[in-house]
Here is the input.
Amino acid sequence: MFEKALKGNSYYWMWLAFLGALMSIAAICYLRQYNYGLGLTGMSRDVSWGLYISQFTFLVGVAAGGVMLVLPYYIHDYKAFGKITILGEFLAIAALLMCLTFIVADLGQPLRMLNVIIHAQPGSMLFYDMIVLNGYLFLNILCGWVILTSERKGIHPPKWIYFFVYLSIPFAVSIHTVTAMLYCGLPGRHFWLSAIVAPRFLASAFAAGPALIVVVALILRRVANFDAGKEAINKMVTIIIYAALINVFFVGLEFFVGFYSNIPGHKHTLQYLFFGLEHHGHIYNNLVPFMKAFVLLFVVGIGLISLPYTRYNKNDIWLGLGCAAIFISFWLDKGVGFVLGGFVPTPLEEVVEYYPAANEIFITIGIWAMGAFILTVLYKIAISVEHEIEA
Amino acid sequence: MDKKRRDFLKIAGVSTLAGLGGTSVIGQMLSGSTPAEAGAAKEVSGHGNEHAPAAHGSNPHGSVAKSGKRLGMVIDLRKFRENPHLGEKVVEACHSTHNVPDFPNKKDEIKWTWLTEYEKAFTEHSHYYKDHSTLDHEVLVMCNHCDNPPCVRACPTRATFKNKEGIVAMDYHRCIGCRFCMAACPYGMRSFNWRDPRAGLDMNTINTRFPTRMRGVVEKCNFCAERVGIGKQPACVEACGSSKALVFGNLNDPNSEIRKVLKANYTIQRKPSLGTHPSVFYIV
Amino acid sequence: MYDGGKIITGLILFVLLVTFPIWYNHGNAGAVPKVELPKVAKECVLPASEMRTSHMQLLNEWRDKVLRTGDRSFDVKIGDKEYQKSLMNTCMQCHISKKKFCDKCHSYASVKPYCWDCHVAPVE
Here is the structure.
């Protein structure tokens, strides 16, 4: 089926060339980092995880979000999602490959990566994360490919594949739960040490993942003559609205616990993220604009996708903008604030701020471009098959 | 596919997953570390016994020979106040013994032991109206060599582990540089080699009996395992001479000097509420 | 088979290409390197032939014993004298030149052990 990806119009090739260029820049930047060390990033002994791990954390959510299409279709037999379930599965593949690349980019000794298997440690959450991420990647490649091939041949998918389809549902939940457990099981990092991290991650994932799919589906309607169907889009928007509200509700609960209990450790990071943290006469607030944008974009986004005027407008640009706003908003929340904020204050109650370096920003952009590249190729294949069936 | 088959597969999927999880894996997770050496570590823990009786007792995994040792240290801050230059001397002794590089750029910083303000070392203690001597003097901090180390739990490769003497050690050959241990350490005692550490060392004056590190691995105080293992005192303890500002020894031996010091003095630990059971004690 | 001719030609070209160094050197392995042996000692911790083939395993074994099991006893013997299990503090005390000993064979065999990223070679 790969030959489907080799036929496209000039916009398709220009888009891929553009992404390829970004990937090449990132490859050069990564070589620099590989030769010099992670000192080329903005990380330090106090903020020891930066953009790479925060992007990883967010993208695990995007991957898990695809299950919001798989679950209604296969468990509840919700037929309207039939055409776009494959988009969810292929999005998961692209997002997971980005996750794994971000982890490798973050390793100080990438050549020793397999030590995680050779010297496997069942006590470490990273071990389980490796298992579920790779497992979910495998399941999505398998299910997506087998089902698409059957569709193309106009036959029912083989029955054994449904075992893996159903298996992929708990896997989707587990990838984000285990990723949350990387953080929420660490003593001494108050902001992360919260039982609500995993449910919050899932809620944000179930909003951000489908939001991206809606945006892409609306774009595909214009550029690829692919109609996801009104009912499917509408149902997805409903899912996004609920999941987004639940995520923000959970953030609100964190505020209540921190500020009503008045325990300094529980408040510090929230203060730092949303208002700026005063420490020895200096106010540290470099993430405040991002968090303000998170709140603002959430309000704008939820308004655009809930209010009937913009939601059901003939011109679907409002709906697209609303979903994009939700996606970016939750990227700011989880892909920037959550991981970076957790390091403030340090265990010695100092405040050290993190500024990503140019080299790591280019690598980060390049890995996103790689994800977009893979997603484009996979969607191209899926849509070409759809067109072939219709023809 | 007919309805019944779908239902069957749903149930099959869920029960397979439950089977995959398995009780043994969960058991290992709860025990906090892996079978062999970790079991031994728990058995010998003196401190752990008093505070967490549930964790003690029959250990299904304990198979490695136990030395019954748990090395610890008492830091007598009174002695450091009496002798204001002692702290720097201790830090210098440690860093030169272990070829710890000196990078002026804070972003690249690596340190094993250092002096910091009382309120930073003891964040859980009240800092209102502290007396002058506490406010004016700094506290020596280093890896606590916890009896229940979160960094060891977090490490995906067992590159950091608790050895049979209770030292939380690093195996630089195995570390993949994921820095999970740095996020896990509630004391901020771990450093990462963001660049080639030899760039921050004068290779003509380094200690040629001890290696440097390479870039991309995490490092920290090793309680001088390389010296203790051949019967010497840690470099920092040696630097204190006969002042007894640092007392090092086996916490599990009731007749050891360190136990006598602990018995005779009121001591505190850093962040005891986290249940890590630090092996470093402070006399304030 | 479709395009059989092309595939077989391609395979032959590939094999020729990867074996190029052998053809180029007419199967000659080049001059075997001569290492400089210590002047202070006649024997090593194991017979020379064993050291030649498995010094890396021995070093790994020492590493794990010293670092992971904490066995730092001086139990390595040359004759009656006992030594510490240590690359820097035992091996390199006799083999005083890394360049004339380690590097000779390592560069010949094109192996790049990362020992010296951390361990300090004797000053030369």
User: Anything to note?
Assistant: Chain B has 13 helices and nine strands. Confidence is low (pLDDT under 50) at residues 17-65 of chain B. Chain B has one domain: 68-283.
